[in-house]
Amino acid sequence: MDKARNDYEAWAEVNNLNSSQVPDDIADGALIGKWEKPCESFVKCNIDSSWINATVNTGVSWILRNNFGEPLIHSRRSFSSVPTKLEAELLSFNWAIDCLSDLRLDKVVFESSSYLAGEAILRPEEFLVFQDLLAHIRVKLTVFGLWNISYAHLEGNRCAHEIALSVTRDHRYQSYIARGGPFLLRTLTLEDVKDDT
Length: 197
Description:
Elements: H1 2-18, E1 43-50, E2 58-65, E3 71-79, H2 85-102, E4 107-112, H3 115-122, H4 131-141, E5 146-151, H5 158-168, E6 176-179, H6 186-195
Parallel strand pairs: 1-4, 4-5
Antiparallel strand pairs: 1-2, 2-3, 3-6
């Protein structure tokens, strides 16, 4: 019974902390624009995409960090012929959720700068054009014991954004999953942790 209570309290803490994290034009109140550590029993997966148009490769990325802010794993993937920005954002969620479900993580906060992608996952009946992709995402989410999707301004999602940009800006099309954080973003990940203390 104590484990169930602890899990519920952890879930409630994550959802209460992130319930105000919606765009300013959707809800009143201030949005914190910096990266925040997840609560103790969770890991946080920041997700982003870089989309220019349907004829240019799209980059998607994620970076997983623990409650100390230490990067555990990160990934980048390139997609071609993605017709819309929203589909690119959903593909970034799909890539992250597929990878992390395969790693058998239990409690994950998925955080993205795309409010609309989060809404599509939580309310798939309002985004019927993406019903197959959303159904796949929602099935994969059942693998996790507890999960949450939250919104962050770009300032709170800088590392994932830079990794995704490496596809469209730097033409790095090689997809990969790697331990830790990207060496080139080490300073940025350290700044995030410093700013959150």
